[in-house]
Predict the structure.
Amino acid sequence: MKSVRQHVFPLLLVFSGGASAGSLPPAAPTDSPLISIIIDDLGDRLHDGKRVVLLPGQVTVSIIPYTPFAKRLALLAQINKKEIMLHLPMESMDERYLGRGGLDESMNEGRFIETLHETLDAVPDIRGVNNHMGSRLTQDATRMGWLMAGLLRHGELYFIDSRTTSLTQAAKVASEYGLDEGSRDVFLDDDKSAAKLQKQWDYLVRLAHRKGSAIAIGHPYPETIEFLQQHIPTLGNENIQLVPVSELLQWRQTRRSLAWQTQPSSSLLPRVVKNSKPSPSSICCVAPVSTSSPPASTPVR
């Protein structure tokens, strides 16, 4: 995947005060709850996309491939040290328009994988993938297997299940294939009213304190952007740290590993080791037994 770093030097002083592009902040201490906020659906509107990229803190941006401003926003995101994801279009129950690079159930495995690999290269410097729509395709465990195998072959990419249906198999299959993975815990802005945004934000904060971490997804609506501009700076008052998705997933993996290591030896049973990822050449369509359970339901998209 070709980096955009070589193109950004003249813009550094404008967007990042001369700081070097491409470096991520140090790992957050594990004694504070962590949250990651993904703003997806980026790429069609430049003005709103710029406002998202300039949000305070380590907001993660997820960009729809082949949209008019996808590469430009990826460039700005990297300059401003925002982690970048691919917002991968997938077939929905109501058959919404997918656009170029979308995946659907009509594809055989060869066409599915070919489309996937072309699309993964459409947005520069991605660290992970989450589904755009996908309420039909994410229910298909076979095609989710094709997807996760393709992500493994492409490189060290994580997967976040947007959970556009309660019947999704995506995170479960990602775990079975050994990918770093997670699921959306909170949609911030299904309702863009100030009261509902506040309610969802308060729930996100409570969930992070209860579980130690939480993942939220929002969209580049003016209401959401203005809300986050005001509320992200208050997270320190809650002793919560906003981190990129990759950092939150690593923190979760470290915590799971430590918990497993501290179990009494008599209680240890054979299990799938998350970090023991299959090599790309060894991937097949038969996945190991899942050790995860799905989160709560969500509106269908």
